[in-house]
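Hi there,

I know you've been waiting on this one. I reran it after we fixed the sequence typo, so this is the corrected version. Both the input and the resulting structure follow.
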Amino acid sequence: MLPSINVFGLEIPTYGIIIFIGICIGGIIAIQYFSKFNNIKKEDVFYAILYAVVGLGVGAKLLYILTNIPFIIENSATLGFWNIIGQMFRGGFVFYGGLIGGILGVLIYAKQFKNSFKSLLLTLIPVVPLIHGIGRIGCLCAGCCYGMPYDGFGAITFDHSPIAPNGVPLFPMQIVETICNLIIFIILLITYKRFLGTYKTVGLYLILYSIVRFTLEFFRGDLIRGIYFSVSTSQWISVALLIIGIAIFIYEHRKKLG
């Protein structure tokens, strides 16, 4: 769609710009709104976001490389191992790796500066689907995370994408996932006060997004992300996070009764 923007002769990736916008919007909402419910200073939320962003980048890139290990092994002899690794670093990211890395970043900040990890996590987790949804618009611009060939309602066709197949009608994966993430954000916003002080918001997010992601993976067209027993790496992670999300709800319910 629009892989990059030319600013004074400099080509700037649209994906990075939109991700940055998403982080800014989500960060402002977390700092100005959700922080007041968790007795946490706004500056701590701001710095925790910076740690989370670093963790997000490292985790997303690391999982991208790990999911491509079969491709690396298969092609290292012909393309060269270090050449492939270089391509991996210039290539994409995997959201689940970013989610795990971001949470670890918040944990590191909480431990380093003796803040409440729970308060920081409960402040930041509601805006994750909002940031993610905005980020998928960046994917649409770049052509990454594209859908399978599809000529039905809402099909999109890329003309100048360096990633997605050009001239082929595809399932509007990025648009659908953006909508799903925004719906999840609205649900978390509506239920936030009801679950205040518990990890149920975290559990609800994991349950909702894992179901969405597991389902949408069947409509993805970029199958290089790893397929094991006819199920992608992200689907296996979705199953694990769904179980964790349900376990969180059970734990919090029993704690309330106990």
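Quick highlight: The CA atoms of residues 241 and 248 lie 10 Å apart.

Best,
R. S.
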